[in-house]
Amino acid sequence: MVPVVRASRDFRRACQEARVDGPLALVPTMGFLHDGHGSLIRAGRNLAPTVAVTIFVNPTQFAPNEDLSRYPRDLEGDLRRCEEAGASFVFAPGSPSEIYAPGFQTFVEPGPLAAPLCGGRRPGHFRGVCTVVAKLFALSRADVALFGEKDYQQFLIIRRMAADLDLGTEVIGRPIVREPDGLARSSRNAYLSPEERPRATALWKSILSVRERFRSGERDPAALEALARDTLARAGLRVDYAELRDPNELQPVASPDPSTRLFLAAFLGKTRLIDNAALGE
Ligand code: AMP
What we know:
Blueprint: E1 4-5, H1 8-19, E2 24-29, H2 35-47, E3 50-55, H3 75-85, E4 89-91, H4 117-121, H5 125-140, E5 144-148, H6 152-164, E6 170-174, H7 202-215, H8 221-234, E7 238-245, E8 261-268, E9 271-278
Parallel strand pairs: 1-4, 2-3, 2-5, 3-4, 5-6
Antiparallel strand pairs: 7-8, 8-9
Helix pairs in contact: 2-3, 5-6, 7-8
Bound molecules: adenosine monophosphate (AMP).
């Protein structure tokens, strides 16, 4: 079975030793792994002889009203998946105090990339994400780190952070892995009831219908966003946002082009689902 370290100092040492053999790739996760995570690990294997996976449900990125305590966990299953995907070792902190020692008080504050979309709806979320990822980069000194475009805004913010703070880790984004019916794989899909699960395809249907309308010549962002919202609402989802943004700075666009991305967040019952895609894919 893939080796597991539970203490920060052991993780630092394991990474230090691995870097003697060549580049080190890092895949940070919150566990309850699925094939989206697996694809990041496999991509890491193509870039580096050693791939370290971290599994940590990071409390600082959850607001008090969010799902920290009920976030799904399955360390045994996760270790099997890491092994299958070719991870070299796993860092699963034995307790949050491995990451946030008593007296901890220093955070990384992201800039304007964190203002729209999920940043606007989840105050402090990306500050928590940046802080934990900066710490994982500092502990591992990884050469590359892989992130999924499932969380596209997070990927851009972390890539920016690594550049701005000279962290020395190259941040690479990887495509979204989907279920056969188009639903983006997510640990949070486990929250969906059997009745809700088929309706969760509304996000993918919304993306497909907006792409189709774009292909047939519609260039009014408001009309495309309204179509996205209607598709979600018709399936009974409560829309959090449905917005077109440019893929680099996440600014609103006056005239969408094929690289423009549609960003969606919607509640199905109590579960908040997100998705995004370029109009021209
Ligand atoms: P999480 O465990 O949800 O924090 O995700 C850990 C990493 O896996 C992040 O970089 C996510 O963007 C990525 N990820 C999650 N779901 C997917 C997916 N369906 N396809 C590709 N990457 C994903």
